[in-house]
Amino acid sequence: MPEMPQIYSTEELIQILSRERHACMNGQRLNLAAMPSGINPLLDRFVNSDGIQRFTAYRDFRTAIHQYQIEHQVSGIVWSSMTIKGKTCTCPKIHEHLISLPSDLAILRAEKIKIVQFWQNLTTELDLYLSMNSGKLYQLIAQEDIDRILHRSEWAVLSQQGKDETLELILQLGWGKPEEAVYRRGFPESGSEYIHAVQPGYVPIG
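Below the sequence we write its predicted structure tokens.
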């Protein structure tokens, strides 16, 4: 019986992408055969004929990884835990260099309520701002407006920046594919809104 080929995990694909990204940044061209971990031959057919020896752009390599994800059903989700004021929430999101599978979207939808409730419990006494014009402007937003965004959104991603008085709890509410919601690349089929919660008297730092 022939040996089954290895299927790379989400974490391994992220590591492979990181190595190629650094090679591109350093002006190098990655030779896949020379990679310490090696590349699965199943991946080779997703790149053009001379791409096995050399890639002229990181984007081309990332596209090959995305096609590999689809064929082998490798999730694009990464999980992280956030602890604020003694409360912890473990949240999924699509890694910034991977794509979402239909099964990933189902997980994100299932986790939405938990993430939103965690954010709401921490922000009852904070000022809420809607990010506008790609984060160049911020506008105070009322709860009823947030409720409307919540109603039409399919998934939520939670992040934070700053600390103490400048702490911001950022809730991204989106629809469609998260990787296409960034910078509104896939609008209107995919998109998202960002709501920043800050201490009273402060404004988002962007």
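The CA atoms of residues 45 and 94 lie 25 Å apart.
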